[in-house]
Amino acid sequence: MIEKRWASVMSSVETEVNRSLEWLGSERNEVRRMTALRIIEVLCNSDLVSLHLYISKIFTELRNPLRNQRHETRMAAACTLGACMELIPMSERNVRNPWLNFLYEELQRNFQMASVEGYHGALLVSQELLQHGGMYMQSHFGQVCNMALKLKEYRDPIVHRAAIALLPVLARYSPQEFTRVNTGSSESMMGRACNYLITLSRTSARDRAAAFLALGNIAQFCSTEYRSFLEPTTRAIRDALIQRAKMRIPPAEADETVTAVLQTIATLATAMGPALTRYVRDILDLMFTAGLSQALCDSLLVLEREVSQLQPAIQGRLLDMVSIILVGVPFRPSQQSLDDLEQRMGTMSMHYATAQNGHRSGAAANGNTANGASSRDAYAGSVSDSTSLVVRAANNIHVTNDTLVLALRTLRIFDFSEENLSEFVRNEILRYLTNSSAAVRKEAIHAVSHIVMADPLYRSMAGAGVEVASEVVQRLVSAAVIDVDRDVRLMAVQMLKKGICFDFHMGKAQNIQDLFLLLNDEV
Questions:
Q1: Helix 294-306 crosses helix 311-326 at what angle (to 10 degrees)?
Q2: What is the pLDDT of residues 479-514, one digit of tens each?
Q3: For 437, left (φ over 0), alpha (ψ -120 to 50), or beta?
Q4: Number of helices followed by number of strands (H, E) in the chain
């Protein structure tokens, strides 16, 4: 209600602020204290002019929550502090500096408490000062660096992780100071931080994800100086993925470390660009061993954009994994002579017929994914030990409707226009328009439409793509008319409207007759 600025709520802002400050100052009820912190944070983010009168009171009352015994309270207080600091204009130094001095003194006071609560509060205040204090922390940069280095190995995991999280914030605040070797020291702050984080990623399973994320963010802010750490970082990533593969964790199972590793690879690609090419080639296959996931797709999209040399390798592996999930066998690249022969004979591709014989496609198309493993198992047994890591990982994925949706979405979000997907679309993807899951049918409509609209092959009025495009249009029209789910019908109509290459095929008498039935649709 505050965010929507409802009049009835805005008139009571003063009352709410005073009550929240009272709860912060004297209330022992933790629920009320957390509620007060949340209310003040939302009010500060709303940038209300009347709230400027309460800045001094808010800063004063936040001292105790920042050293509260509960970890959640300290985190909430830090978020509220950052929102409140944004209310002080950067140009008004006479107003801003006294309060920044006050906060820095509180930081030192918390640190001198030498307790878990004090150390954690000092790290949180340091982070907010670095993010919202402008150039004020430039003169205190060295002290905060020393504090982070001192607490990075603290016995308490909360303090330890807060110190790790502060390292990339320091790198972002002043890359020059972070990478400079100070007098009397053999290495820079960056060198000490990166060496520690790389070692931590190898030795601590509990902190491996946090260490990789911190390394990726440091590389983003100090890309030039990070080149010397690329090899040990990618080696640590490779070892982490190999270790996971050896543990035989089922692919696509939620894993914090794998998600962090994939995100770190994407961040390194953004920071380093083509310089990452030779390092990523060694870990590309290992990235797929965790199975198809949104984190993998996001990471590969960034790699394709930033390291274009890897695009053929990425797309080939993706198509194999998607094909195994949807069909039961790896993707077969276009082979003109064989495709022409099968087309003249009027038969399905014998490659994909293997999956049909194993009932993989039939099971998936009917929504019974549990029974669809037979063809994958049969295929896995026929390819011996030469099977790639990607194929083996895909064969071990437990296929659910969510997995099918993600596989179909992958066909849509990646640009596979360099590969001829005609037989794949006609023989396999179109089957999912009759899947028992509405989400799968909807994503299948989106996928086949995108493939046809993105490839110039299907825009011509004659040639190999005409028959496929015609069949796609016919199936989309059927879905628009007879599908039981209104969202699926609407998606089919939207795709038919959006695809200019569909117009030629929609002119057929049967399609026009069916489209007139849409005038009676409830949507």
A1: 160
A2: 888 888 999 988 888 888 876 667 667 767 777 787
A3: beta
A4: 30, 0
